[in-house]
Design goal:
The structure holds 2 protein chains of 2 kinds. Helices cover 67% and strands 0% of the residues of chain A. Chain A is rod-shaped and about 95 Å long. Chain B contains 7 helices and no strands. The C terminus of chain B is likely disordered. Classes of the chains: A mainly alpha, B mainly alpha. At the A-B interface, α3, α4 and α5 of A face α3, α4 and α5 of B. Chain B: Belongs to the LOB domain-containing protein family. Chain B: This is LOB domain-containing protein 12.
């Protein structure tokens, strides 16, 4: 039974050894994955990067390299950095919206509090001595606007 | 007037720097580290091919983004830039949740202050997954929430220290 070469060795047209560093991360059923990383990084760079990492980190490294290569092929000028810029802009926009709404909440809260205070002052008035009230009536006639008592 | 000194790439590659050297405008000899790191991650021939396939006016930005990605990969050999993307996607999701909460709060306040019946429908609060996938689908961004940078602080700090193409987005 012939053993299948990994996508890397197929692409590079070479024999796939049993300890091939690419075989676990670039299976033969996904040739595009290796083609993309090879186009951007080069097979020898990928091999060096994977070799410099402990075995349990290599799968994630291969995935992230593929993602970066994919982004670079889609956007040859900015690659992943284009996505980072979009995300940074979005963060800034959402932070501005949150700040706006929080300012509005603070304003509405203050407004409601001052209405509450005025309402409480109005409630206090009926508890005054009726004699005092009649005296005030006499005084208030001398003002143009009796509402100035409360402001 | 003396001859032109070789650019950083030709110095590193130990070759004659031609007049029409594709690297010379972007890798000056006074910054050898810039080319060294790009060569380490991408390789000189790959960078040369990428630049050759692009119009002149886009090459400077391309080099800047390649340098940024190479630096990210050297700092974080497992996730590189992708760790930063994953981190920022999480931030966006969290901020959108905060925004939804704030919007609900202000709606409550407005309803309390105006007790007349409101005919508009109440806002639908999306859960975290819905929101992030909504945002990502709107912008056609692949979701990489599974990635976490092996050192988030390293990548995040780079946003504060380095400005991406002259823009400081995070205050």
């Amino acid at each position: 039974m012939a053993s299948t070469r990994c996508a890397a060795c197929k692409y590079l047209r070479r024999r796939c050894p049993s300890d091939c560093i690419f075989s676990l991360y670039f299976p033969s059923n996904n040739p595009q994955r290796f083609a993309h990383v090879h186009k951007i990084f080069g097979a020898s760079n990928i091999g060096k990067m994977l070799q410099d990492l402990p075995v349990h980190r290599r799968a994630d490294a291969a995935d992230s390299l593929y993602y970066e290569a994919h982004c670079r092929i889609k956007d040859p000028v900015y690659g992943c950095v284009g996505i980072i810029n979009i995300l940074l802009q979005e963060i800034y926009n959402v932070q501005c919206q949150i700040a706006k709404i929080q300012a509005e909440i603070a304003f509405l809260g203050t407004h409601a509090q001052s209405d509450q205070t005025q309402y409480q002052q109005l409630q206090i008035a009926p508890n005054l001595d009726p004699n005092f009230l009649s005296e005030q009536k006499g005084l208030s006639n001398s003002f143009d606007d009796s509402s100035t008592w409360f402001f | 007037m003396g001859g032109n000194s070789p650019c950083a790439s030709c110095k590193l590659l130990r070759r004659r720097c031609a007049k029409d050297c594709i690297f010379a405008p972007y890798f000056p000899s006074d910054d050898p580290h810039k080319f060294a790191i790009v060569h380490k991650v991408f390789g000189a021939s790959n960078v040369s091919k990428m630049l050759q396939e692009l119009p002149l006016h886009q090459r400077a930005d391309t080099v800047s983004s390649l340098v940024y990605e190479a630096n990210a990969r050297v700092r974080d050999p497992v996730y590189g830039c992708v760790g930063a993307i994953s981190y920022l996607q999480n931030q966006v999701s969290q901020l959108q949740m905060q925004l939804a909460v704030a919007q609900a709060e202000i709606l409550c306040i407005q309803m309390q202050q105006e007790p007349a019946p409101i005919t508009t429908t109440s806002p639908v609060l999306l859960d975290a997954d819905d929101k992030s996938s909504y945002y990502l689908h709107q912008n056609n961004l692949p979701q990489f929430l599974a990635f976490s940078s092996s050192n988030n602080n390293v990548i995040y700090d780079s946003f504060k220290k380095e400005s991406l193409f002259g823009q400081d987005m995070i205050s």
